[in-house]
Amino acid sequence: MTNIVLKPKANKYIVAFVSVCLLIVGMVIHIAFGSSSISFIDVLKALFASDDSKQTTIIQTLRLPRAVLAALIGASLAVAGALMQAITRNSLASPQVFGVNAGASLAIVMALILFPELNSQTTVYIAFLGAALGGITVYLFASGGKTTHVKLALAGMAVHLFLSSLTQGVIVLNEQATDVLYWLVGSINGKDWTHVKILFPWFVLGLFFAFSMSRSISILVLGENMATGLGEKVKWIRFFAGVIVVMLAGASVAVAGPIGFVGLIVPHIARKLVGGDYQRILPFSALLGAILLVYADVLSRFIAYPFESPVGIVTALIGAPFFLYLAKKGRNIKQ
Amino acid sequence: MKKIKKGKLAIIYAIISILLVLAGCGSNQDSSKENLDNKQKVTVQHELGKTSIPKNPKKIVVLELSFVDALQGLGMKPIGIADDNKTDMIEKLVGDKIDYTSVGTRQQPNLEVISSLQPDLIIADYQRHKEIYKDLEQIAPTIELKSRESTYEENVDSFKTIAKAVGKEKEANQRLDEHEKTIAELKNELKEEKDQTVLPAVVRDTSFQAHTSSSFDGEFLEKLGLKNAVQNKEAYAEMNLEQLSDINPDILILANNEGKLLTDEWKGNSLWKNLKAVKNDKVFVVDRDLWTRYRGVVSAEAIGKDTVKLLNEE
């Protein structure tokens, strides 16, 4: 078994227990804070109440779905990031850094302008298309072989910035069409159960497939030759992992815009906590990603309190220094 | 090889410096000529300093819609407008087909087209065109005034400044007196009970943007006696359904975007159904151009008439 080589650094049961507790506490805090002050006990009561009072409605139809959506998107993006880091064997990879998010965002904005009456279900497929195009563009750079991690990340960032600037341009030219900020940084403000319903099937499918191929991915990380030697079909693993990335990241962007840096940070934290085996990294990435975005979304409300700010600003605030740290660390290892 | 390269470089430098000198001469000549032609000048104070403008400028280019409105109020028409390439929007604002050249979008006006029109005066928006002030100054005397995200009072000030720049201060005072009278009449006509709160907002597919007491439409409605439900220094505020149900305004005035709307998603929620404005059937959909884009003395009156018509209907 590969696990022997890749020793976990902490007891996985303890990590799992603490993470689940953190997630539950985070969700409760998330639900408890809002513009209308509802006492903590009333919040808990409202969660299980079945009346149609204002408080219950606020909790059940607005705050709860938003918290659930934050967790689902955080998990999706984190797993997508972990998969990308595995298939490119690049610790700087993530849906944002490699242009997947920006591609999905651009595709949706274009579609919204060309076909304003588009329903949300169809937008998901358009997001998939854009995510795939963005990802493939960067991946073509990766298959060159000799590019270093930092160079590849730079190429990815360049594609990301290029696609973002196109998005910005398209919106500037059609100023009334939609919100610039939303399609550049992403936000989960004002989302409800309809959005959860759109994301949920893709979330389940994506996570199911990701977890079921986690063993192959662990082997892939050991190196292409080693993996081929161990009887793995490297190309197919990469392809399927890529499809899962497009599914998870694309669907997330379709419901909340391109929230960045979750997919970059979380797999690293997961690796630190539970070691290098993807059979553990993937589920823990999902858990930690959910935690990160739930807490980030709580913070996002305090930027311009009592009004809303996009959560993507908070993740960028945490993520950008982390990215620089990784880039620096990566360079030291390479040299 | 190296020598040849150096020689070539020297020639290129020489050509560039000659061109620069020529260009310098050219612009100098132009301005000295202008000085001779228009000895009389008006100095106008604006957001970015003082600018002297030839007296009674005829050819004016404007880069925001509120300036079209201001000139309209003074009985003048610009020769160039940053109209976002929407002629019908200008037609609706002026109420007539006028002859003008589009100088591109308000966000990115086309400097070449502006300069080809050889204007006497350019009126630019302080927020959007701060960065290109120097470029505009090279084309013609430019004044930068508040328009985007500005309040109603700031727009009235801009109107006065424009009047001074075009030498029509008398007309402007008359027009403003008339304006005050119109507002007073509209305020009398308005049958709303006192202490009603109103919230104007722009609705898009992903956002509900409330226009607060510091926005153009918000402040103007307060002048008509309708208190804004959100008293804030920022002109616009992003809001979700929870906040809206907390604020619970008596009257909602929605300037809807084209296409999908966030409020359509909200309509199924009982919080929306329980809003005072929804229950009492006081949700009004208005024209977004008039309510939030034109921003000027003339359009304020139109907004006032719109308000009276909508609120008095029942």
TrEMBL record, chain A:
**Topology class, membrane:** Multi-pass membrane protein
Q: Name one Pfam family in it.
A: FecCD
Compartment(s) of residence: Cell membrane
The biological processes this protein is annotated with in GO are: siderophore-iron import into cell
The keyword Membrane belongs to this UniProt entry's keyword annotation: yes
Q: Per its UniProt record, what CDD domains does this chain match?
A: TM_ABC_iron-siderophores_like
Q: Which InterPro entries does UniProt cross-reference here?
A: ABC_BtuC-like, ABC_transptr_permease_BtuC
GO MF, one example = transmembrane transporter activity
Domain of life from the UniProt record: Bacteria
GO CC annotations? plasma membrane
Provide this UniProt record's keywords sorted from A to Z: Cell membrane, Membrane, Transmembrane, Transmembrane helix, Transport
Transmembrane segments annotated in the record for this chain:
12-33, 67-86, 98-116, 122-142, 198-219, 239-269, 281-303, 309-327
- Major localisation: membrane
Record has Transport as a keyword: yes
Q: Which family does it belong to?
A: Belongs to the binding-protein-dependent transport system permease family. FecCD subfamily.
Q: What is this protein called?
A: Ferrichrome ABC transporter permease subunit
User: From which organism does this entry originate?
Assistant: Viridibacillus arenosi FSL R5-213
From TrEMBL, chain B:
Q: Which UniProt keywords apply?
A: Coiled coil, Lipoprotein, Palmitate, Signal, Transport
Metal-binding among keywords: no
Q: Which residues form the Fe/B12 periplasmic-binding domain?
A: 59-314
Origin, by domain of life?
Bacteria
**Any GO BP annotation:** iron coordination entity transport
Cellular localisation: Cell membrane
InterPro entries from the xrefs?
ABC_transptr_periplasmic_BD, Bact_iron-sidero_bind, Vit_B12_bind_prot
* Topology in the lipid bilayer: Lipid-anchor
Listed GO cellular component terms? Answer: outer membrane-bounded periplasmic space; plasma membrane
CDD domains in the cross-refs:
FhuD
Per the database entry, which stretches of residues form a coiled coil?
A: 162-196
Q: Does the keyword DNA damage apply?
A: no
- NCBIfam families assigned to the protein according to its UniProt record, in alphabetical order: PRK11411.1, TroA_like
The family this protein is said to belong to: Belongs to the bacterial solute-binding protein 8 family.
Report the protein name in the record.
Answer: Ferrichrome ABC transporter substrate-binding protein
UniProt source species = Viridibacillus arenosi FSL R5-213
